[in-house]
Design a protein that fits this description.
The chain is mainly alpha-helical. Helix content is 67%, strand content 0%. The protein is globular, with a radius of gyration of 16 Å.
C-alpha cells in the first residue's frame, strides 16, 4: 500500500515542481530516504548533488537546514504525560498559525490525529515544519508530504505511514469528480 501511495503521489507532485524548498525535500526523500538503511550523503555532497539536479543554491541551503531542524527536532522534550493521554483535548491554533494554515490543513491534521496516524507531539512537529517551509499558501498535498517526512524520520512509524497512505487513498476515492 505504502509503495503505491508513494509512487502515485511522487508522480503527481513532480509534474508540478517549481524548485521550491518542498520540491527539494520531496526529491531528497524519494532519492535517499526510502531505503531500509538510507545512505544520505554528507551535507556538502548532498548540496552539490541537488545543485547538479537543477535546484537553486539558496533553496538547497534552506531545504538542508529544514532537514537538519527535523532531524534535531527529535531531541525536543516529550509532552507532559497528561497531554499524551488526553484524547479529547483540543489544539488551539495561534493567530499566526491560523493565518498560514488553511481550514483544510487544520482539518487534515485533526483527522490524522483522531485516526492515530499522528501523536500530539508529531502534530506539533508537523505544524512547525509546515510553517518553516515559508510557502505562500500551504495546501493539504504539501501537508501530506510533511507528515510523511516527519513520520518516516521517526523509528517505528511504519503503521502510521500505512494509515496515512490508506487515508490519502480513501480521500482520493471519495473526492468529487
Amino acid at each position: 500500500m505504502w509503495r503505491l501511495f508513494r509512487a502515485a503521489a511522487m508522480a503527481e507532485y513532480l509534474e508540478m515542481t517549481s524548485g521550491s524548498v518542498l520540491d527539494i525535500l520531496i526529491y531528497v526523500f524519494d532519492q535517499y530516504m526510502l531505503e531500509e538503511a538510507p545512505e544520505v550523503p554528507e551535507r556538502e555532497r548532498l548540496a552539490r548533488d541537488l545543485e547538479r539536479a537543477g535546484f537553486a543554491p539558496a533553496n538547497v541551503e534552506r531545504a538542508l537546514t529544514w532537514l537538519a531542524d527535523l532531524a534535531f527536532g527529535h531531541e525536543r522534550a516529550p509532552l507532559p504525560a497528561a497531554q499524551r493521554t488526553q484524547q479529547a483535548g483540543v489544539r488551539v491554533f495561534s493567530d499566526s498559525e491560523l493565518a498560514r494554515l488553511s481550514t483544510e490543513c487544520r482539518g487534515l491534521l485533526f483527522r490524522l490525529e483522531r485516526a492515530r496516524v499522528l501523536t500530539p507531539q508529531q502534530r506539533e512537529i508537523v505544524i512547525e515544519r509546515m510553517l518553516a517551509l515559508d510557502a505562500d499558501e500551504p495546501d493539504t498535498e504539501q501537508l501530506k508530504w510533511v507528515v510523511l517526512m516527519v513520520l518516516s524520520s521517526q523509528p517505528g512509524q511504519e503503521l502510521a505511514v500505512e494509515r496515512l497512505g490508506g487515508l490519502v487513498a480513501n480521500e482520493r476515492v471519495n473526492a468529487p469528480h
